[in-house]
Design brief:
Shape: globular
Strand order of the largest sheet: 5-4-3-6-7
Number of strands: 7
Strand content: 15-25%
Order of helices and strands: HHHHEEHHHEEEEHHEHH
Radius of gyration: 19 Å
Number of helices: 11
Distance between the termini: 50 Å
Length: 213
C-alpha cells in the first residue's frame, strides 16, 4: 500500500481513503446499505473487478467495511460499512457540497445511475412546509424511477407509485438543476424537461435561498 509517510492526520486519512474509487465505494454503501459484490460493480461503472477486490480488502483491513453472510435465499457475502466507515458520511456530504457547482453543465456521455440522485437530493432538499399533506414526486431519469417523498422531511428512494402528485422526466442534469434551483421550471422545460402535476412541490423542497428568491 502506498503511503504519504507523514505524521499528519490528513495524510494518514488519505493513506486509507485517498486512492481512486475508495470514496465511491463508501458512497455506494452509504446509499444502498449492505451490498453484494455485483451490486457494487453495477454502481461503480468502469472499475476493474480485481481493483474492486483490492479496494474492498484494504477497506476491510482498516476497519472501514466488514463482510457478513446474507441469510437465505440470498446466501451470499454482503459488504457493509462499520461505524467508522459510516462516520465518513460527513466527508462525502462536504465533497458533494463542494462539487455542486461542477454539476451545472450537461451530463453528456458520463455514466449515470438513478440511485446516485439519493445523495445530492437528500443533502440539499428539505420540506419547508411540513404542515401540508405529504406528497410524492416520481422522478424518471436513468435506468429506474425514483420517488421523492415529502412529509416533514425529504426521502429519496427507488420505486414507483400509481398516482404521484407530480412526475418529472428529463436528463440527470436537468433534474438536479431544477431541484437545486440552478434552473427555473420554465427554463428546464425549454431544455426538454417534462413536468406534470403540482408545481408548488418544487418550491416546497428547494433550498431556502432559492425558494425565497
Amino acid at each position: 500500500m502506498r503511503t504519504y509517510d507523514q505524521y499528519c492526520s490528513v495524510a494518514r486519512a488519505l493513506d486509507v481513503i485517498g486512492d481512486r474509487w475508495t470514496l465511491l465505494i463508501v458512497r455506494e454503501l452509504l446509499i444502498r446499505g449492505p451490498s453484494r459484490y455485483t451490486d457494487l460493480q453495477y454502481g461503480l461503472p468502469g472499475i476493474a473487478t480485481n481493483l474492486l477486490a483490492d479496494r474492498l480488502r484494504e477497506l476491510e483491513d482498516h476497519g472501514v467495511i466488514a463482510r457478513e453472510a446474507a441469510p437465505p435465499p440470498v446466501a451470499t457475502t454482503l459488504f457493509r460499512l462499520t461505524p467508522r466507515g459510516e462516520s465518513l458520511k460527513g466527508v462525502l456530504e462536504a465533497l458533494g457540497q463542494w462539487g455542486r457547482p461542477l454539476m451545472v453543465g450537461p451530463s453528456g456521455d458520463a455514466e449515470f445511475r438513478s440511485h446516485w440522485l439519493i445523495f445530492p437530493l437528500q443533502l440539499h432538499l428539505s420540506d419547508h412546509e411540513p404542515d401540508l399533506p405529504p406528497a410524492v414526486v416520481e422522478i424518471r431519469t436513468g435506468e429506474q424511477p425514483m420517488l421523492l417523498e415529502i412529509g416533514g422531511s425529504v426521502r429519496v428512494r427507488p420505486g414507483t407509485v400509481r398516482n404521484p402528485d407530480a412526475t418529472v422526466t428529463g436528463t440527470p442534469s436537468l433534474i438536479l438543476g431544477l431541484f437545486t434551483g440552478a434552473l427555473e421550471l420554465a427554463a428546464a422545460r425549454a431544455r426538454g424537461l417534462v413536468f406534470d402535476g403540482d408545481e408548488d412541490l418544487v418550491r416546497r423542497v428547494q433550498p431556502l435561498a432559492v425558494a425565497a428568491g
